[in-house]
């Protein structure tokens, strides 16, 4: 009887374990999409845009508005809104460049600038929408696919798959297209670009625009996965930088691995120790990474 | 002006402020004034690391909350949960200061070898980690919060809030004196070189890591000391409000708006921004008030990077030497620095 | 203070190597500099001169090899510790402290590097010393101005003066003369010679060949991260490999 009880406990835990891991992988895919923007702005351009999560939340709310008024699928909305977010990002970079980068003051004042943006965005959303949780409706929110003992909610599976597609697309752009390679180059050798008659500032503007454009999509994914309210962005600040640093700064494949790792650990922590511990996981990871191996797993 | 004289002047001003507040006859002055004084300490403390050394700390709330929660912990330890205080506030402040100072040192040790940007992000991380720890620590009340009963009266001074106000007033004086002392000392020169060019500072013999650790520890300790009496002020301590974003944003906005190069900046910024917020909270709403802070911060950082001190300089076109005794002013990057 | 252990070598670099990712910046650099030497370090752009200086001074950590200064191994020591031991350098691209005026810029090494060696100086002594140093490089009339008000050339002079302020045993001057007029070059050379006569060992990194040839008693040539020549200037300049590096 004792052995039987142990066996039962083991199976029960195993079920929970495998589901937690799968859940972690699924959310990790999403985390990677969220981080991709920061990999661009921080990893490659060296701009500490801590307001990135705010743009994601903005994307969530845009998807929410369109979804509740017109009934359009959030991911579709996000794709349509990408150019608008791109323009927003380009505009913000221009202000950042003129006010800070050009003057060499990006460390203190640049950080304060983005912090201010984060703050303004969050408080504006609170003023306009209030602190109630908002959610969207879509045919894949609700059903769950079952593969044996593993349950994969579609509301997590769909964003995960689209996220990985987004990252694959970004990686292709960065490595195969001219603009993409110019972006990679601007991080390392601005002089070389100038010699090729390419304006590095324009390249950086485009890169930052792309970074914010990803936030539009990430926002749609977020509100599909979970209900959103304005302060949700804050927990992502640490996650996003943790994944970016852990994944080796500008490396997108690195970000994917790091994101899955953090997703799995968070999921396991949440399942076995309770959800109130989850926020500390990624931040704890970040502190550890910074202390021990700042170059990340696939370090540069 | 030598420091002892400065201290005497500050104490005189403080005495005048206290007398003036008492003369108003309404305890509300003390409640509002306490918050402003608290921010004088927080913004001055922030500026020691942020303005003088150039290392941005987004986690002011964490150090503040550590001070507050160490007070709660001491209470729970002594077991006098709802009884009036037996451990006097200054001692609690010392405890809060030590706890925050140690954590500041520890965090600095882990992250200060890296670039300023990483340190800034690490401070964000610290705030969240600490909040999570506190929320899960039932000993200090966890997410349910902790009640601290405020005694009614204090002999000689009057209502308890007057006592709290007085204590915070003295802490504010101490913070300003410390900041000014640092500014004018060898340490202040060292901090400035760290802010300007850490590599060149090292090459010139400045032990940058040691100095950064000193700055982080002092800054953290002062913030913890500001937080220690907070449970008494607020009566009911909750993690969500104690770790609130308004502490982080205000302790950054106030020095940046006032000017980061000198002890005067955080003071000016706090008085201006603090009063503005008190008015806005009362007349409009607290959410709009926060929005205002964010907008003003962004506007100042773009348009007036040297804060109000900088604006005063430009307007009067005085040489940097003549002002506040320090030959220092924030400048645009020089032509040749890569 | 214990003196040199091995002969009279102030600086010993042994089998130094430094890579940046896949790029080999320095390979197998060996260098011995006796006290009192006037060493010229030359080489085409990108040959690794500044990287070598950075490794010697601790701004960069070398992966391979070792550095000994004044008889003590300095591998792993932070830059400020090496400066305190008596090793000072100027940066090729000037790095002034932008929010401090010139006087205060010079004051920093005096307050930190020199003071840590135990000698107590009064504030007025320090101030006088700062003014003297500025005068030696011809910048005393701008003592209370900020670095942003200086020309490129003046900033290089400030760099040199700041390195001198650390009262070093070994001073590495990295391209301090770029952009100077003929007479200014002579002035700086005279300054360096005066320093050397007071006992300061000097490593001069320069592209102005005339200056290097007249100043150096010994010349070291670096090409693509390797040392290809080391000896008296005339001999070195007649070395066919050196000719090839500069003309080939």
Summarize the helices and strands and which ones pair or pack:
The complex is a heterotrimer of chains A (300), B (338) and C (248).
Chain A: H1 2-44, H2 52-70, H3 74-101, H4 106-129, E1 144-147, E2 150-153, H5 154-176, H6 178-188, H7 190-195, H8 200-225, H9 233-246, H10 252-273, H11 278-292
Antiparallel strand pairs in A: 1-2
Helix pairs in contact in A: 1-5, 1-8, 1-9, 1-10, 2-3, 2-4, 2-8, 2-9, 3-4, 3-8, 5-6, 5-8, 6-8, 9-10, 9-11, 10-11
Chain B: H1 3-24, H2 28-50, H3 60-78, H4 89-111, H5 116-135, E1 146-147, E2 153-154, E3 158-159, H6 160-184, H7 186-196, H8 198-203, H9 208-227, H10 230-234, E4 236-237, H11 239-242, H12 245-258, H13 264-283, H14 286-303, H15 307-316
Antiparallel strand pairs in B: 1-4, 2-3
Helix pairs in contact in B: 1-6, 2-6, 2-9, 2-12, 2-13, 3-4, 3-5, 3-9, 4-9, 6-7, 7-9, 12-13, 12-14, 13-14
Chain C: E1 9-20, E2 23-34, E3 38-42, H1 49-57, E4 64-69, E5 72-73, H2 79-85, E6 87-89, H3 102-114, H4 123-136, H5 152-165, E7 170-174, H6 182-197, E8 201-205, H7 209-215, E9 218-223, E10 226-231, H8 233-238, H9 240-247
Parallel strand pairs in C: 3-8, 3-9, 6-7, 7-8
Antiparallel strand pairs in C: 1-2, 1-4, 4-5, 9-10
Helix pairs in contact in C: 3-4, 3-5, 4-5
Verbal overview:
The complex is a heterotrimer of chains A (300), B (338) and C (248). By secondary structure, chain A is mainly α. Chain A has one domain (23-232). Chain A has 11 helices and 2 strands; from the N terminus they run ααααββααααααα. In chain A, strands 1-2 form a two-stranded antiparallel ribbon. In chain A, α2 (52-70) runs parallel beside α4 and α9 (233-246) crosses α10 (252-273). Chain B is globular and about 55 Å long. Chain B starts with a helix and ends in a 22-residue tail after the last helix. Chain B has a two-stranded antiparallel sheet with strand order 1-4. Chain B has one domain. With 338 residues, chain B is mainly α. Helices cover 71% and strands 2% of the residues of chain B. In chain B, α4 (89-111) runs antiparallel to α9 and α13 (264-283) runs antiparallel to α14 (286-303). Chain C is of the alpha/beta class. Chain C has a domain at 9-96 and 170-247: Rossmann fold (3-Layer(aba) Sandwich), CATH 3.40.50. Chain C is 38% helix and 25% strand. Chain C contains 9 helices and 10 strands. Chain C has a 6-stranded mixed sheet, with helices on both faces. A 4-stranded antiparallel sheet of chain C has the order 2-1-4-5, covered by helices on one side. The longest helix of chain C has 16 residues, at 182-197. Chain C is globular, with a radius of gyration of 18 Å. Classes of the chains: A mainly alpha (300), B mainly alpha (338), C alpha/beta (248). Chains A and B meet through α4, α9 and α11 of A and α4, α5, α12 and α14 of B.
């Amino acid at each position: 009887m004792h052995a039987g009880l142990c066996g039962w406990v083991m199976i029960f835990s195993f079920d929970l374990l495998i589901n937690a891991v799968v859940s972690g992988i699924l959310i990790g895919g999403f985390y990677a999409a969220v981080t991709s923007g920061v990999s661009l702005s921080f990893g490659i351009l060296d701009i500490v845009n801590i307001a990135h999560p705010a743009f994601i939340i903005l994307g969530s709310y845009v998807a929410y508005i369109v979804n509740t008024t017109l009934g359009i699928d959030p991911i579709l909305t996000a794709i349509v809104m990408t150019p608008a977010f791109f323009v927003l990002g380009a505009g913000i970079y221009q202000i950042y460049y003129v006010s800070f980068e050009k003057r060499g003051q990006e460390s203190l004042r640049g950080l304060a600038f983005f912090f201010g943006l984060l703050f303004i965005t969050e408080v504006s959303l609170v003023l306009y929408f209030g602190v109630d949780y908002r959610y969207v409706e879509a045919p894949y929110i609700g059903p769950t696919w079952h593969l044996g003992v593993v349950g994969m909610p579609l509301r997590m599976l769909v964003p995960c798959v689209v996220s990985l597609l987004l990252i694959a697309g970004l990686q292709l752009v960065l490595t195969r297209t001219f603009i993409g390679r110019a972006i990679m180059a601007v991080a390392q050798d601005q002089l070389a670009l100038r010699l090729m008659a390419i304006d590095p500032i324009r390249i950086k503007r485009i890169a930052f625009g792309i970074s914010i454009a990803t936030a539009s999509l990430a926002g749609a994914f977020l509100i599909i996965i979970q209900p959103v309210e304005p302060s949700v962005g804050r927990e992502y600040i640490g996650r996003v930088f943790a994944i970016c640093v852990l994944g080796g700064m500008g490396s997108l494949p690195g970000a994917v691995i790091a994101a899955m790792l953090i997703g799995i650990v968070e999921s396991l922590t949440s399942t076995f120790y309770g959800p109130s511990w989850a926020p500390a996981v990624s931040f704890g990871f970040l502190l550890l990474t910074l202390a021990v191996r700042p170059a990340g797993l696939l370090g540069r | 002006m030598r420091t002892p004289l400065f201290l005497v002047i500050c104490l005189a001003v403080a005495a005048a402020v206290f007398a003036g507040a008492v003369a108003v006859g309404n305890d509300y002055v003390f409640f509002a004034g306490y918050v402003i004084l608290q921010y004088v300490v927080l913004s001055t403390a922030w500026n020691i690391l942020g303005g003088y050394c150039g290392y941005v700390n987004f986690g002011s709330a964490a150090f503040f909350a550590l001070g507050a929660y160490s007070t709660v912990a001491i209470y729970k330890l002594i077991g006098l949960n709802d009884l009036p205080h037996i451990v006097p506030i200054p001692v609690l402040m010392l405890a809060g200061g030590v706890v925050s100072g140690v954590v500041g040192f520890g965090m600095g040790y882990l992250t200060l070898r890296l670039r300023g940007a990483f340190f800034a992000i690490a401070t964000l991380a610290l705030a969240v980690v600490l909040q999570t720890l506190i929320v899960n620590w039932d000993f200090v009340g966890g997410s349910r919060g902790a009640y601290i009963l405020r005694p009614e009266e204090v002999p000689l001074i009057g209502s308890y809030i007057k006592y709290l106000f007085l204590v915070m007033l003295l802490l504010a004086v101490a913070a300003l004196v410390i900041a000014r002392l640092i500014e004018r000392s060898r340490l202040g020169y060292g901090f400035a070189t760290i802010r300007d060019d850490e590599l060149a500072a090292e090459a010139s013999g400045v032990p940058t890591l040691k100095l950064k650790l000193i700055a982080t520890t002092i800054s953290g300790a002062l913030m913890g000391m500001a937080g220690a009496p907070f449970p008494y002020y607020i009566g009911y301590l909750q993690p969500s409000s104690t770790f609130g974003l308004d502490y982080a944003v205000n302790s950054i906005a106030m020095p940046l708006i006032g000017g980061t190069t000198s002890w005067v900046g955080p003071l000016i910024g706090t008085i201006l921004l603090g009063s503005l917020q008190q008015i806005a909270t009362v007349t409009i709403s607290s959410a709009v008030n926060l929005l205002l802070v964010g907008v003003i911060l962004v506007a100042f950082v773009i348009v007036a990077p040297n804060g109000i001190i900088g604006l005063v300089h430009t307007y009067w076109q005085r040489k940097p030497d003549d002002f506040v005794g320090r030959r220092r002013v924030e400048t645009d990057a020089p032509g040749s620095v890569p | 203070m214990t003196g040199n252990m091995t002969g009279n070598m102030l600086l010993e670099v042994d089998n130094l190597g430094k890579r940046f990712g896949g790029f080999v910046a320095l390979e197998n650099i060996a260098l011995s500099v006796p006290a009192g030497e006037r060493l010229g370090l030359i080489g085409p752009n990108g040959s690794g001169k500044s990287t070598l200086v950075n490794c010697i001074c601790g701004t960069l950590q070398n992966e391979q090899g070792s550095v000994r200064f004044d008889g003590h191994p300095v591998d792993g020591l932070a830059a400020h510790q090496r400066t305190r031991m008596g090793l000072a350098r100027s940066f090729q691209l000037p790095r002034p402290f932008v929010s401090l005026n010139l006087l205060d810029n010079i004051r920093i090494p005096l307050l930190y590097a020199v003071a840590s060696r135990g000698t107590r100086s009064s504030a007025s002594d320090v101030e006088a010393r700062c003014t003297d140093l500025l005068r030696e490089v011809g910048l005393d009339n701008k003592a209370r101005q900020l670095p942003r008000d200086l020309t490129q050339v003046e900033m290089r002079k400030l760099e040199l003066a700041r390195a001198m302020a650390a009262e070093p045993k070994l001073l590495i001057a990295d391209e301090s003369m770029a952009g100077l007029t003929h007479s200014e070059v002579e002035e700086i050379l005279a300054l360096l010679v005066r320093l050397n006569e007071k006992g300061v060992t000097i490593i001069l990194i320069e592209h102005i060949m005339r200056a290097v040839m007249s100043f150096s008693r010994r010349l070291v040539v670096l090409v693509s991260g390797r040392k290809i020549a080391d000896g008296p200037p005339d001999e070195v300049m007649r070395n066919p490999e050196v000719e090839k590096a500069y003309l080939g």
